[in-house]
Amino acid sequence: LQNIQANVRVVSDGIGRQNAVIDPAILRVVFEAIGSREALKLHYVSSRREESDKELNPLGLVAKDGTIYLLATRGLETRPKHYALHRARAAERIARPRSVPRGFDLDQYIEDSHKLSHVLDAHEGLVELQLRVAPETMYHFRERPLSKNQQIDEHNRDERGWFLVTNTIPVTIQLVPFLLSHGGWIEVVGPESVRQEMKRRLKTAAAHYGK
Using one digit for the tens of pLDDT, what is the confidence trace for 82-110? Predict the structure, then answer.
C-alpha cells in the first residue's frame, strides 16, 4: 500500500493549469459536516466577487477540473447548486440535521447533470449534435465518447474521409469551447444554433489576427 501511495497520482484534465487553492481548515469543516450529516454555514465569494453568508444542506463533494465542489441546497430547494470551495472564506457547522431532497442520489445526479456541467438553457432539453470529424482527431471520440448514446457512422464517410459522429446531449457551457479546441479537424453539422455559435466565435477570434 505504501508503494502504491508513493507511485500513483491523479491529474486533472486540461492544459496543465494550477489547481485552485482551498483553505484546508474550510475543507476539514465541510468534511465534518458531511460526516455528521449537519447543516453548514459558508461565507462565500461568487465569481462576480459578491460576498454572502449561506446556510446550506451539504449533499456531497465532487472533485472536477482542479477544484472541489460542494453540492448543497438551501432551505427547501430540491435541486443542488455547486459551490467551488476555493471561493469559500469561512465555514462552520450548524447544530441541526441537514435536509436532503427526497430520492437524491449523488452518483445519479452526477450522471444526469452531464458530470456537473452547466446547461445554458434548461428549457431547451437535449439536442442531437451532429459532427463531421477528421480521422486525425477521431480518437478523442472513440476513447472518450461525449455520451453513452454516441454513434459513429463507420461506413458513410464524406469526400474528405471524415466521420459522422452523433450524440444526444444538453448544450452546456463547455460544449462549444470543447468543439473549438479541435480547430479545423471538426465541423458542426447541427443543430443550427450550435453551428452558428461556432461560426460567431471563430469569426470573433479570427478578427484578433487581422487579415
Answer: 999 999 999 999 999 999 999 999 999 99
Query: What b-and-e string marks burial along 57-94, b requiring 16 or more CB atoms within 10 Å of the CB?
Result: bbbbbbeeeebbbbbbbeeeeeebeebbbbbbeebeee
Any bridge partners for residue 72, and if so which? Answer: 58, 81
pLDDT tens by residue, 111-167: 888 888 888 777 778 999 999 999 999 999 999 999 999 999 999 899 999 999 999
Q: Which residues contact 176 (CB under 8 A, 6 or more apart)?
A: 194, 197, 198, 201
Instruction: Count CB-CB contacts under 10 A for residue 25.
Output: 10
DSSP alpha helix (H) spans, 37-117: 106-112
Question: Can you tell me the distance from the alpha carbon of 183 to that of 211, in angstroms, rounded to the nearest whole number?
Answer: 18
